[in-house]
């Protein structure tokens, strides 16, 4: 009887640990979906509020990407963004990163309307940087795939501003 209950206990333990391992694996995968294809190596915050908190705490600028799943311009930009090593490296190391598929209540994040894709920077003093814009006067914060070098310059500008202003 002793052998039987030890065996049963071992099997139970085995079942619990393998379920736990699967749950942990699933958890990891669920976290990765926060990237939504913009870069799996990047640590993404879940909400704008969390982004602001992390920016202040880490003294890094927050980069907010507004996009929608069924927007072809967003998809094209996402692909270019995810494939660019310099952007991925900077995003991973120097920025707090957030990609949103819904609008925030912060009106400062839609100064010229609620369109996608748009990318905005918020500095660690929690100021939305209206001075870091893209190339298009009708949609100030939009970028197209061919604007990736311009976006890289704007990311560097956001980092410089922190050193000089804050």
Automatic annotation (TrEMBL):
<feature type="signal peptide">
    <location>
        <begin position="1"/>
        <end position="23"/>
    </location>
</feature>
<protein>
    <submittedName>
        <fullName>AGR3 protein</fullName>
    </submittedName>
</protein>
<comment type="similarity">
    <text>Belongs to the AGR family.</text>
</comment>
<dbReference type="InterPro" id="IPR036249">
    <property type="entry name" value="Thioredoxin-like_sf"/>
</dbReference>
<keyword id="KW-0732">Signal</keyword>
<dbReference type="GO" id="GO:0005783">
    <property type="term" value="C:endoplasmic reticulum"/>
</dbReference>
<dbReference type="Pfam" id="PF13899">
    <property type="entry name" value="Thioredoxin_7"/>
</dbReference>
<dbReference type="GO" id="GO:0002162">
    <property type="term" value="F:dystroglycan binding"/>
</dbReference>
<dbReference type="InterPro" id="IPR051099">
    <property type="entry name" value="AGR/TXD"/>
</dbReference>
């Amino acid at each position: 009887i002793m052998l039987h209950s030890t065996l049963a206990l071992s099997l139970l333990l085995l079942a619990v640990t393998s379920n736990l391992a699967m749950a942990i694996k699933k958890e990891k995968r669920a976290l990765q979906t926060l990237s939504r294809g913009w870069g799996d190596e990047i640590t993404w915050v879940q909400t704008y509020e969390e982004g602001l908190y992390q920016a202040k705490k880490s003294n890094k600028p927050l980069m907010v990407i507004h996009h929608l799943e069924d927007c072809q311009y967003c998809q094209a930009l996402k692909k270019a963004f995810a494939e660019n090593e310099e952007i991925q490296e900077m995003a991973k190391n120097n920025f707090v990163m957030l990609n949103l598929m819904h609008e925030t209540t912060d009106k400062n994040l839609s100064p010229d309307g609620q369109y996608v894709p748009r990318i905005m920077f918020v500095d660690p003093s929690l100021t939305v940087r209206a001075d870091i814009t893209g190339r298009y006067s009708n949609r100030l914060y939009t970028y197209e795939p061919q604007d990736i070098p311009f976006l890289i310059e704007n990311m560097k500008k956001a980092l410089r501003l922190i050193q000089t202003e804050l």
